[in-house]
Amino acid sequence: MVYLIHIPYSKEKAVETLNKAFLKKYVTPLKLFRLSYWGYGGLSYYLLRNSVIQFIVIDSFLAYLAIEIGLFYLKTNKKLFFLLWLLFFPNNTYLYTDIIHVSRLSFYPTNSLIMTLNPTTWLCFFWMLLGIFLLIYVGNLLIRQISDCLKRNYELNHQKCFLVNGLFLLLFSFGTYIGRFLRFNTIDLFSKPLTVLSKIFYSLNIDACLFIASMTIFQLIIFFFLTHEHKSFMHRSNQ
After folding, report:
1. Where are the transmembrane segments (predicted)?
2. Phi-psi region at 48: left, alpha or beta (left = phi > 0; alpha = psi -120 to 50)
């Protein structure tokens, strides 16, 4: 007689298996994304090293690093990497505010109302937007996948999942505010946490709250548009 022994299969293990299946399914797009980013980063360093927008090299790398941390969380389902992702991901949403730096480019020659056709100016403009849009697009898809992971981990319904996405974007807007206006980065949270907390406490006012709220709403619109269109595209592709 053969006895079947039931080995409990934890929920965490099941979620980890589903996450790995997702990563395996999208292994080719992820490889293309990584190849695209490193090609973009390398060319950015070469092309923009003396440009007024050379900052995009560092900013785009930090945004990319946040995505890799999120992917590693999906691979391992470890809470430590989820917390690291929360701390680093504002570097991705920070890219929204980098768009304001196109004003550093000289689109109008001195005393002229006619835009320049200088190829260097327009190359910098399009190159900067290319990196920003690529990283923001992949970043939003990652938020969606991580929220789906939490949905499976904690058996969240659609309403709670919507709330989780909203809280994510609120936190990331707050992190963007800290980086853009208080000039702190993620490392500062570990190296001088009391200084960061003190500065945040004394800096919060109605203008800061309006910025955070406005950016959260803006991100919600972008998030649901991008993820809905991606989901619709994948559904049509599988038919």
Report:
1. 52-74, 81-100, 120-142, 162-182, 202-226
2. alpha
Q: Among candidates 142, 195, 151, which has minimal Cα distance to 169? A: 142
Residue 126, amino acid: F
Q: What is the spatial distance between Cα 130 and Cα 102, in angstroms, rounded to a whole number? A: 13
Take residue 75 and report the two structure tokens written for it.
């691979």
* 181 close to 208: Cβ distance less than 8 angstroms: yes
C-alpha torsion sign, points 180, 185, 190, 195: negative
Number of structural domains (the chain) is 1
pTM of the model: 0.86
Nearest-10 Cα torsion for 220, 129, 100, 70: 50
Domain assignment of residue 64, given as a range: 12-104+115-237
Cα separation of 124 and 44, whole Å? 9
Rg of the chain on CA atoms, in Å: 21
Whether 193 maps to a domain, the answer reads yes
* 46 falls within a domain: yes
pLDDT for 37-56, tens place per residue? 999 999 999 888 888 888 99
Tokens of 63: 């945004």
Q: What are 87-125's pLDDT values in tens digits?
A: 999 999 999 999 999 888 888 887 778 898 999 889 999
Within 13 A of 60's CA, how many CA atoms are on the CB side?
A: 28
Say if 1 falls within a structural domain: no
